[in-house]
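Figure 2 data, in text form.
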Amino acid sequence: MMHRLCIMYAMDPRGSKVGGIETHIRLLLKHHPADFRLLFVGLDERGDLGLGRVAPLTIEGREVDFLPVAHVPAERVNRAATTLIRSTTLAYVLGLVRALPAVRRWTAQGPASIDLHRFEFALPARLLGLPQAQMVHGEGGKGDQMDSLIKRYWFLHRFNEAAALRLADRIFCVNPSIMRRLERDVPQAALKAELMTVSVDTHTFSLRPFDCADGVLRIGFAGRLDAFKDPPLMFRTIAALRERLGGDGVEFHYAGATDPRRYAEFASIEACAILHGVQPAKAVAEILGRCHAGILTSHFEGLPCFLLETMAVGRPIGAVRLPQYDAFIATGTSGRMVERDPDPKVTANALAEAFEALWADIRSGRISPGRVRTKVEAHSVDTQMVRLFERHRTMQSIEQSKALSAPPSRAQG
């Protein structure tokens, strides 16, 4: 029996948008099991496809079906909207509503369910009458730093979240903090929830040995430089580290769509920065393999794919501590963490000191790439995808059982 899974998200799988959710969805498209047919309902960045029409698409050798619902150029996709009328999410939702008949025709061909990664899509998805799984990726509150319109329209975000959690048949939380919040604030939703992190492709992000021959410490970051990632602190940390190790002793490698020059603090490290731009996963793995460590300075996170990918390559992480990092980053084994101080300069100096100690651990052999990698092996696609798709099989089976046990309608009688 061929199962059908409809994934709804505002991106073009052929496109340039990068981030944790985008990475996770590309892994779903690439690693789905043979008994599933996938429909990705997304955006068209190139403007070369007909909206509302299903077309086959090959993703790294795997064929899926693609239904674009709005044309949004790449420059808009990779930049946070400043007004509601320019919102990619709004354009997607309006297009999704128009495309629901096409989705319904596709899902009617076999047992089907829906996979969601944003709260805003839950209400239109429910109009299809199919079981749906909601993955909760984000944390952060109204007062936190963020680029997106969520901060301005927080009441709307809360409304969509409440609706999505109520409508979901299964809820996947990417870190324990989200699970605890549901148990405390939305106990009915917590009964449907379980911890399931994003995944890492441990085949693409394979283990690499350290190369310390030239004595230069290379620190990497891949992804968007959104405000909640605190790029100014990241750049201040690299600048403080250069003072400790000498101007030629540090390199900063960045792979992503954001121009770091939008932040004034980047000027102090531009001389030691290598900007790789947007890169496919294989190239990102090579870049991280040439680095010695990754850096994370976020105010809040779900669970960064960057963390999993960096550690899968065997590279430790220097980070401003968040509770979800505790299971991964251990001093002397897989990295170092510092607490955030109200003064960014204090935090930057503390994190620079942590990187200096981490560099000593790497050169002395106290940190082993193999031991770092063991921290993320349980989160590989080989483990996670089996579990995720089994949940969808179960939801579809329950839905079929309900349909079979339902009394016949008056027309059938």
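Caption note: The first strand starts at residue 3 and ends at 8.
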